[in-house]
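WARN retry 2 of 3 for item q-0093 after timeout on previous attempt; input resubmitted unchanged.
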Amino acid sequence: MRILLVEDDRQLASTVARGLREHAYAVDVAHDGDEAVYLAAVNTYDVVVLDVLLPKRSGFDVLRELRRRGSSVRVLMLTSRDAVEDRVHGLDLGADDYMVKPFAFEELIARLRALLRRGDALGPAVLRVADLEVDTRAQKVARAGHPIELTTKEYALLEYLARNAGRVVGRAEISEHVWDDNYDPASNLIEVYVNRLRRKLEAVGGAPLIHTRRGAGYILAEAEGAG
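OK item q-0093 returned
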């Protein structure tokens, strides 16, 4: 899942972004309101973590602009002010959740998981495809009861495929949700990670689950003809 973190405190932004990446999220960082609006316009995000007090334009203005453009991206607002009227204002503008700084990083992760669980398209906390289980809370993967050790990026790619099981997802879509703004579309990085996942999933036995649709993308399904 890909997150836009909007925070003008560069040290805090760096710390939070590093922690999010360690939890398998792809993260882009904006340090002011104008940059946030631009990045949200050119990239696809699953959640925006948005500070209220920002240079150039406030978090409220950023949120107002996102909703004006018709964006339904989930927005978690951060503020150092605990005034009820601020929280009400943000929620009225279309924020999905609110956190007051300073906050515990574990609570931020829990709130992000809750936001990502909203909506039928994102499915349950434990994703199952044939004998494969992906526990999105614990970020653990098992096949036929056998645990499978994955790197952070391998897990992020598998979770995205599992959330879209039975549907072909193209390289562009994968790069938008699993990689950050540093991804080079000319590279073969996605193919490399797909092949790593295939090897690990098939090493414990069972039929192939990740199938290639030539010219279209990849599909996670029990049978190649699925979807």
